[in-house]
Design brief:
With about 425 residues, the protein is an all-alpha fold. About 80% of the residues lie in helices and about 0% in strands. α4 packs antiparallel against α14 and α10 packs across α21 (about 415-420).
Length: about 425
């Protein structure tokens, strides 16, 4: 019967059926062939999205969309001030700005669109290649999902039972490693290809203004993490706080968000949230079916039958996740693969939080690889090139991300360092 489920899912995905509907149809096919009750599907779907944690999704999505109004240019100016002096300073500033905005918005595509839309044309105008510009913006945006607060961390936490607060803290070091790695890459390429720094001198008064102007949006992750860690509010409540704070900044402080724009932003965020929640709702009965059919245990036995080497099994899992990331979005991969792979990884000594970071990094690399590659498509569209023209530059940035992936996979203590200090 489980074969029918996977067959229906594979066929519907290949013909272009949206992921949420594909998962739902496969679950219905399983119930029909097994003689079960259809009410189970409806009951499980309602259970999947009725949790308190799920309320954070639309709030974080709305917060990230609002933050694009007023915050992104201020964060970009601060990044230029900090790293603009080095070779390839403009590109390095773009990487730093992506890290800043990722901490503010929690969305990879939003980071690529907001910062890339500002930095991309400026980098091309200063002589940076369109390929490396698009690749940097895409990679920096993809890694923004590792820097708290993060939408996909909320999804993973609700799917695996991992602490969302610990997930937020665990992503800090890997996210910073990727951003620093991308900055080192652009410095190396700048020396090799003679890119300009693009640094503009500022007097003391201007420097103080730039720093002060960027402090308010940078307070977003401080407020969220500080509130969650101190127990003032839960991760779900922190999403509401983030949303209200972003609204106050955009409307009353920066005065760059009009009523008409807010209505559009709210509608777009609601639609985006509905898509994600539909996938989660449909995947909840899928997880139940996989559990009663012992799919995780059977998959583990199959892997152990191939080899007993921990390294080889983890390598196989990594390859599977990388391949899935090329044609599936991160939320779908989390929902589908977490119940199957998490028991294997915990058996090897990884905690759910450690595996969560590894999973997110794999899917981030996949988001840079066609045919899906949402962040790369966004970066290429900004600078006006075809996605195939971004090669081989995209391979450089993927190499940086892959090195960090190896570090956090082989040395999981890296992502556990900060959570262990707090919890």
């Amino acid at each position: 019967m489980i074969g029918v489920l996977f067959a229906v899912m594979l066929v519907t995905l290949l013909i272009g059926v949206p992921v949420g509907f594909s998962i739902g149809m496969s679950c219905l096919a399983f119930i029909m062939t097994s003689g079960g009750s259809f009410s189970i599907i409806a009951q499980r779907m309602c259970e999947g999205v009725s949790s308190f944690t799920m309320m954070a999704l639309p709030m974080f999505m709305l917060s990230g969309a609002i933050m694009a109004y007023g915050s992104s240019p201020r964060l970009m100016r601060l990044a230029k001030l900090i790293v603009g002096r080095m070779p390839g300073g403009l590109g390095a500033a773009g990487c730093a700005a992506l890290g800043f905005f990722g901490a503010v918005s929690g969305s990879g595509v939003a980071s690529t669109a907001a910062i890339g839309g500002l930095m991309g044309p400026e980098m091309v105008k200063d002589g940076y290649g369109k390929g490396i510009t698009a690749s940097l913006m895409a990679a920096g945006g993809a890694m923004a999902s590792l820097i708290p607060p993060s939408l996909v961390m909320v999804v993973y936490g609700s799917s695996s039972g991992a602490s969302i607060g610990e997930m937020f803290l665990a992503g800090i070091i890997p996210g910073c490693l990727v951003i620093f790695g991308l900055m080192a890459l652009i410095v190396f390429l700048a020396v090799k290809r003679n890119y300009p720094s693009g640094y503009v001198k500022h007097n003391f008064k201007e420097i103080m203004f730039i720093i002060a102007d960027a402090l308010l949006p940078l307070m977003t992750p401080v407020i969220i993490l500080g509130g969650v860690m101190s127990g003032m509010f839960t991760p779900t409540e922190s999403a509401v706080v983030s949303c209200v704070y972003a609204f106050l900044l955009a409307v009353f402080v920066y005065k760059e968000l009009t009523l008409k724009q807010f209505i559009k932003v709210a509608a777009d965020s609601a639609i985006g949230s509905a898509v994600i929640l539909l996938i989660i709702a449909a995947a909840t009965p899928l997880g139940w079916i996989l559990a009663i059919e012992n799919v995780p245990q059977n998959f583990t036995a199959w892997l152990m039958g191939i080899t007993s080497s921990k390294v080889l099994i983890i390598a196989v899992i990594t390859v599977i996740l990388l391949i899935l990331g090329t044609f599936m979005e991160t939320v779908s991969i989390i929902i589908l693969m977490t119940p199957i792979l998490l028991p294997i990884m915990t058996g090897f000594g990884y905690t759910p939080v450690q595996f969560g970071i590894i999973l997110l990094m794999n899917t981030a690399i996949g988001s840079l690889t066609p045919p899906l590659s949402v962040c790369l498509f966004t970066g290429c569209r900004i600078v006006g090139i075809r996605i195939e023209d971004s090669f081989p530059d995209v391979l450089y940035v993927m190499g940086v991300v892959f090195v960090v992936l190896l570090i956090v996979t082989l040395f999981p203590q890296v992502q556990s360092f900060i959570p262990n200090l707090v919890f």
